[in-house]
Each structure stands twice: as structure tokens, then as C-alpha cells.
Design a protein that fits this description.
With 238 residues, the chain is an alpha/beta fold. Helices cover 35% and strands 14% of the residues. Strand 1, helix 1 and strand 2 form a beta-alpha-beta unit. Helix 1 runs antiparallel to helix 5 and helix 3 packs across helix 4.
């Protein structure tokens, strides 16, 4: 783990590229605002049809450089066959307590890929347990995050709120395309998948336009929330 960094935002995904696809613009926006952000990949994505664990790790490192995040870490939770159990929760609790993020972003509560919703529950449970003093870890100081938000992935979900990412959209797409093994590449000899076509990249753009429309911006990312939250006054809403 990278030492002496307290993160403002920790974005967690079960697979490398989950965060880039759905929350990269939000991360870029907050880094521009002076916030410290990191990414935690729970698995190596080793069960993906295209590429392998080694290439996906290399691609994740390239995407991290593009985003300018402070830290990226990868756990060894099993791709596809992981369970929401004590062992996996403790791995995430350790990271949360170490980096002490105020906000955690994580996988969608429902999605086409079954790993996503299962990871959402795993992370939500770990965030809660990270604040319990009687749960012992190496980084043993309990830590209570301020908020947990779920980004929206392949399946359309009605967002609870959206974030304007218009100035950062192109760099978001650049971070996605760092995953050369996974997304559209006309020269690739790998099998076709639901995310490897040019149309999928068009869909990413279209979804960002759709989320941006209600707040009158070009591109936005959508999130769902795990609890009701308040606003300071009625005049800061977009």
C-alpha cells in the first residue's frame, strides 16, 4: 500500500475498467478540485473473455496515469466465483481503514454482469464493518466513511443524482481505451464480446448525454445512493 495518503474518494470495482467506464469523469472532476482519489480493483479480471490478468493489470496502470489518481491497488478476490464472506470483507476493510476515504464509489446495485451487484453488496457491508471497533485488522483504527454511492454500469438505472463531467469526458474515454484488450480494436484477433464493439463506445457516450440532459449539460455520470442525504439550501441544486 502507498503510505501516508488519506484519500477523499476511493472508487472500487470488482473488475479493472469498471471504475473507468462509469465514474472516471467524476474522479477527474474531483481531482481538478484538489481532492485525492484512488481506485481499488477487487479482482484481477482473470475470467474475462479477452485478455488476461497480466494484460489487464498493465492496462489499469496506464489508465491510472491518464486519470492522475493518487493510488491504485488490486486485491486477489476471485473473479466470478467470489463470495460475500468474512475473508473478502476483511480485505476491503483493511484498505478502507488504511486510506480513510470520506466517500466510496462502487459497483451498480443491479447490472447485466452478476458480479457487479454482488460486489456492490460486498463493498457496502465492508464499509459498514470498517467502522466497528471490535473487528480487528492490521490497520486497526476503525473508519466510518461519510457516504457510499453506486455508479451505474451497463444496465440503465434511474440515477438519484448526476454529476456534470463535460470538461472531462474526452479524458474519461481515453482512460477507457487504455484497456486495449477489452474494447473496440479493429485489428484484434480476440473473440467478440458485448463490450468489444464500436457500438458499445457509442453507447457510453449516449448514456453520458442522457444523464446530462436533465441538468442541461453535454455529458454526465449517474449514481444511486444508499441513504437519504440532505442539502444545505435549495439554491445550490443544479
Amino acid at each position: 500500500m502507498t503510505k501516508n495518503i488519506k484519500l477523499d474518494i476511493l472508487a472500487i470495482g470488482i473488475h479493472p475498467d469498471d471504475v473507468e467506464l462509469s465514474a472516471a469523469g467524476t474522479i477527474l472532476k474531483h481531482i481538478k478540485l484538489g481532492k485525492k482519489a484512488g481506485i481499488l480493483d477487487l479482482s484481477k479480471g482473470e475470467m474475462g473473455t479477452r485478455g488476461n490478468a497480466k494484460t489487464r493489470n498493465q492496462e489499469a496502470l496506464e489508465a491510472s496515469k491518464i486519470l492522475g489518481i493518487n493510488v491504485r491497488q488490486q486485491l486477489d478476490i476471485e473473479d466470478c466465483f467470489f463470495e460475500n464472506n468474512k475473508s473478502n470483507q476483511l480485505k476491503i476493510i483493511e484498505v478502507i481503514r488504511y486510506y480513510q476515504p470520506d466517500i466510496v464509489l462502487c459497483n451498480a446495485i443491479s447490472d447485466r454482469h452478476p458480479d457487479h451487484s454482488r460486489a456492490a453488496k460486498l463493498v457496502a457491508d465492508a464499509c459498514f464493518y470498517a467502522g466497528l471497533s471490535k473487528i480487528k485488522t492490521t490497520a486497526n483504527v476503525p473508519w466510518k466513511i461519510k457516504a457510499l454511492y453506486h455508479y451505474i454500469q451497463d444496465q440503465y438505472l434511474q440515477p438519484d443524482f448526476v454529476i456534470d463531467i463535460t470538461p472531462h469526458f474526452n479524458k474519461k474515454m481515453e482512460s477507457i481505451l487504455a484497456y486495449k484488450s477489452q474494447f473496440y480494436n479493429p485489428n484484434s484477433k480476440e473473440p467478440n464480446t458485448p463490450i468489444s464493439s464500436k457500438e458499445f463506445l457509442d453507447y457510453i457516450k449516449a448514456k453520458a448525454i442522457l444523464f446530462g440532459r436533465p441538468i442541461n449539460c453535454a455529458y454526465a455520470e449517474g449514481f444511486t445512493k444508499s441513504r437519504i442525504f440532505g442539502v444545505q439550501n435549495l439554491f445550490n441544486l443544479q
